[in-house]
Design brief:
Layout (H helix, E strand, L loop, with lengths): L3 E5 L3 H12 L4 E5 L2 H10 L4 E5 L1 E2 L2 E2 H11 L4 E6 L4 H9 L4 E4 L4 H27 L14 H14 L5 E4 L6 H10 L8 E5 L5 H9 L16 H4 L4 E5 L6 H13 L1 E3 L6 E3 L3 E6 L3 H6 L5 H7 L2 E4 L10 H15 L6 E2 L1 H9 L5 H15 L4 E2 L14 H5 L3 H15 L4 H8 L3 H10 L3
Parallel strand pairs: 1-2, 1-3, 3-6, 6-7, 8-13, 8-14, 9-10, 10-13, 15-16
Antiparallel strand pairs: 4-5, 11-12
């Protein structure tokens, strides 16, 4: 999904030019010519970053930073001015601005700064989303299905939940690794402490390092005060590291230290910080193979894999498809106030014959769509819309090589984005650092 940038600028020509420059990087851009109009857009739109002129007709842009951060703490704000001063710059940063740049002099810096601001905002929004989920905690009762492979995974997870052992969840994307992690936390002695989760593949390594371990004031530009990292936020509780296989070797080394003695150094700090945080990691990759190819630390792999739980793909637990579909039907019927109570046989047959490369997440999305477009009280097969007929058979997919598929999609995304890696990463739904690594790996 493309992130949205709001430009608050009363000079229409400059605002339009800046908008076109940022849109060329693949972002959605909204414009406002006053602070009041900008604040109204922030209330109604999913905005990640605001670029605000300092001199506005109804407000001072430096003071607007404080107002925005008070109302929307996870939105990043960049001040832009033609007449900068050290005093304004310092005040803007104290008010919570991500950066303060000069028009004209800093034109080459705008896009890199916007990229970093979006990356930080996306991470903060993701953390906020995970924290909100804690209000409705997932337990093993929320894991639906009766297939032997799922039951085996649940039994193993329940056994390890009551311990403090590190857990590695293995499985394809969409198999429910996050729900399993929350269930393990909720059935442990740590359930009254925080459950914090982060996707390691979504953000650059520098930003991820700061978010995981925190930083001290003065560690880098804009670090005006000490900040707790996710390890400290989860102290006494559980930290869920999704897509652990995407973490770079430097961060892996620091993670290994935490697993070994419970200590780490904040960015810019020479003193060690100690925490009592349980780690649950998850990946859809073969970490042992990556370790053999020097893409993952073998010693870290062994520390993470003390207890592994494999989550089966949906195509290997087809007896659970109707159970899950029924659950999603009830859920979305209530959500959209629809009176849909049945699924006919052709509909169920089509669900059972689909390959489900996106697993439970894909099934959930399909059910949401059909509930929205259905006109009667019964879901019928004509409502279903899968990617293509070729993708619905396991035999077809078995003939493909995963690396070949990945490289083809990356080439296609790079072509559609005319070589713009930032836009390509958004089309692919992966982090920019992950895209660079894939390009190097496949020699594209």
């Amino acid at each position: 999904m493309q992130s949205t940038i709001l430009i608050v600028e009363d000079e229409s020509k400059f605002g339009g030019l800046l908008s076109r420059i940022i849109e060329a990087e693949g972002y959605n851009v909204l414009q406002a010519q006053s602070a009041r109009a900008g604040l109204k857009l922030l209330e109604n739109e999913d905005i990640r970053v605001v670029i605000s002129d300092v001199k506005l007709p109804d407000a001072n842009g430096v003071e607007l930073v404080r107002r925005i951060k008070d109302l929307h703490p996870y939105v990043e704000v960049i001040n832009l001015t033609a007449f900068g001063s050290i005093k304004d710059s310092v005040k803007a940063m104290k008010n919570g601005a991500f950066d303060y740049i000069m028009k004209g002099d800093d034109n080459d810096r705008i896009i890199p700064i916007v990229n970093k601001a979006v990356e930080k905002a996306d991470l903060q929004f993701q953390i906020q989303r995970f924290e909100k989920k804690q209000s409705v905690p997932h337990t093993f009762r929320h894991i639906l299905g009766k297939s032997p492979s799922l039951v085996e995974a649940v039994v193993l997870a329940q056994k390890v939940a009551i311990t403090n052992t590190t857990v590695l969840l293995l499985g394809e994307t969409g198999t429910g690794k996050e729900i399993f992690a929350q269930a393990i936390h909720e059935e442990s002695d740590r359930k009254n402490k925080p459950f914090v989760a982060v996707n390691c593949s979504s953000f650059s390594n520098d930003l991820l390092k700061s978010e995981l371990f925190g930083h001290v004031a003065g560690a880098f530009t804009g670090a005006l005060k000490d900040k707790k990292g996710l390890f400290e936020e989860a102290d006494g509780g559980t930290l869920f590291l999704d897509e652990i296989g995407e973490m770079n070797l430097e961060l892996q080394s620091q993670l290994l230290r935490v697993l070994e003695d419970g200590t780490f150094n904040k960015v810019g700090d020479s003193k060690s910080t100690r925490v009592n945080t349980r780690i649950i990691a998850a990946t859809n990759k073969d970490l042992r193979k990556d370790a053999e190819n020097n893409r993952f630390r073998l010693d870290l792999f062994y520390r993470l894999a003390v207890f592994t739980v494999f989550l089966p793909p949906l195509r290997e637990r087809r007896e659970d498809i109707e159970i899950l579909a029924t659950h999603f039907l009830k859920d979305f019927s209530n959500k959209f106030n629809r009176k849909i109570t049945k699924m006919d046989e052709p509909f169920l047959k089509a669900l059972n014959s689909h390959f489900w490369k996106g697993n439970i997440r894909e099934l959930r999305n399909v059910m949401e769509r059909v509930v929205i477009i259905a006109t009667g009280d019964t879901l019928t097969a004509d409502l279903l819309q899968f990617d293509s007929a070729k993708e619905n058979t396991e035999d077809n997919w078995a003939t493909f090589n995963l690396a070949s598929i990945e490289s083809q999609y990356i080439r296609k995304a790079m072509s559609q984005s005319s070589g713009n890696k930032t836009e390509a990463s958004r089309l692919l739904g992966i982090g920019l650092s992950t895209l660079y690594r894939k390009i190097e790996e496949y020699k594209l």
